[in-house]
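Example (one chain per record):
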Amino acid sequence: MQSGPREIATPFRPIPLDVPEGMKPNEFFNSTENLNDLVHNNGLLQNPEGLLLYRKALGHSNEFDCSIIYNTSQRILDPLGRPVRRTQVPDPVKNVWNRMNQIIIDFMLERYPDADETLVLAGEASLDATWPLTSAGVPSIRMLHNHFIAFDMKALRAAPIADANNPNLTDGGQHSLFQAHMRDVYRAFFDELDLRILKPCEAGSCRIALTGYPQGLPSWEIQGGVDALKEVRFWKEYDTILQGFIDFYRTFFTQVSTRNAPLPRDIYFPDLVEDKLQFNNDFLKAAKMVRDRCIKDAKYANSIRWQPAFKQLIYRNDEGKLIVTISQNSIGNAITELLGVVVKREPDSNAYGRAEPALIERLLEVRRRLVEADLGEGIATPHWAAT
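Predicted structure:
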């Protein structure tokens, strides 16, 4: 069978939301009013820490698809002031969030034990306003949230090959700035991080054979598999990967913005940045290349995402191993596209209705396990009861 990214069609039920006159959809989706609708129509569970588990109404997959969002919409009305990544979450909230992640991933692997039958992934998306506010791609909900998704491999095998020129599929491959011009620097920097559970993958060894993805991204095997997710050490290392990425990204674009700039403020690994980046000719040569182009090319300069933008995920590879990877998300691709899955959402209430009962049954079982672990209380909606 030909290896390549797949485009899969996912039916959904149109959402009856009226965007107030004079507002753009992305402006409305950032509002407290929209979050209230999300809770009351799709909410599954919430807890005192402000974490909300909900069904994805415009989902990626009707096999299994839900998210946890850190719902600060009523406490922080400024969308640009809300936490949008793990490193901005208070420790007590992060502790609960990590446990929720562990239980949901454990359920997914129990429910879908065969890697040959189901593609399983869970991941976090950066939601910073890191590209022009006038862009169509500005985040629809500017709050930290995780995705939990399962795709039927039979359906993926039957899906058509996606357009290889789709820009969202090139983020971590040869078109990526980091991979094309700083690959060795990037990998060497990550190699210096203190990781014991996460073991670096050999180049290309963690790809999904069907799609050929991820491409060009640093990846780590989770030694110990799903049991390792029960260890605090794993989640600290998961944070370390993100912290290292943020340091690299911020240091690079600080140098792009200002030649010979000092260390960025509040970085996580200042000695590592100074040793491996600020004195590295390849790193600084790439920064000069981007800076020179920004000065001459207004369109290119406008496309730069000056603050860290990323997708970080855990997925199961063909061998059944759990893998962590992180994307230099310069383009803004969907989290599924890191694994070569392009989702084409199609409005079709009848098709969605046929898949909905089984989907809801699985989501309610996840909710039951979370409630049992004292991670929240159920929410009643028109589609399900609170218990």
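Caption: The CA atoms of residues 197 and 223 lie 5 Å apart.
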